[in-house]
Amino acid sequence: MELPMEVEKILTLLPHRYPFMLVDRIVEYSAEENRIVGLKNLTFNEPFFQGHFPGSPVMPGVLQLEAMAQVAGVMLNLREGNEGKIAYFMSINQAKFRRVVRPGDQLRMVVEAVRLRSRMAVVQGHAFVGEELASEAELAFGYGAE
Questions:
Q1: DSSP class of residue 118?
Q2: DSSP 47
Q3: Terminus-to-terminus CA distance in the chain, angstroms?
C-alpha cells in the first residue's frame, strides 16, 4: 500500500461522505504492528464550527472520537479477510478530552489495536494537535457486510 493514502483511496475503504468524512490522509500504516496514523485538517469552514460555538469555535469531542473511529475503520478494513466488510463503531470506553481543538489545527489520530477477532475489534486511539494530546479513548467495533 502506498503512503500517504489520500482521500480518494480512503473513500473506497469507508462508507462516510461529506460532511461526515473526518479523515483527510493516512500517513502511517503497519499491518504487522496493527497501527495507523491519520490526519484531519480543520478549517473554519467545517460545518460544526458554525454552531459550536459562535465566537469561539471548538471541535466537538464526540467528533474527535468519530475521527479516531474512522481512522480505525481504515485499518480494520485493510486487514486481510475484511474485504467487503464494514467496521461498525459499537462502544467507547475511557474517553478523555485534554485540549481544545480549533480551526487551523491539524488533528493527528494514532490508533493501535488492543484485540482483533474475526467479528470484533478493540483499539486504543489518541488524537494530537502537534505534540499535545487532545483526546483519547478505547473504541470497539463489530464487522458487518456492506
A1: S
A2: G
A3: 22
Burial 119-140 (b: 16+ CB within 10 A, else e): eebbbbbbbbbeeeebbbbebb
| pLDDT of amino acid 74 | 97
Assign residue 111 the CATH number of its domain: 3.10.129.10
Could you give the C-alpha distances from 76 to 83, 123, 136, in angstroms and in order? 10, 10, 18
Tally the domains of the chain.
Answer: 1
User: What's the pTM?
Assistant: 0.96
What pLDDT band is residue 131 in, cutting at 50, 70 and 90? very high
* Catalytic entry in 52, 79, 85, 99: 52
Q: Give residue-wise pLDDT tens across range 82-100.
A: 888 899 999 999 999 999 9
For residue 103, the model assigns a pLDDT of: 98
CA angle 88, 8, 114 (to 5 degrees): 35
16 as an active site residue: the answer is no
Structural domain harbouring 94:
5-145
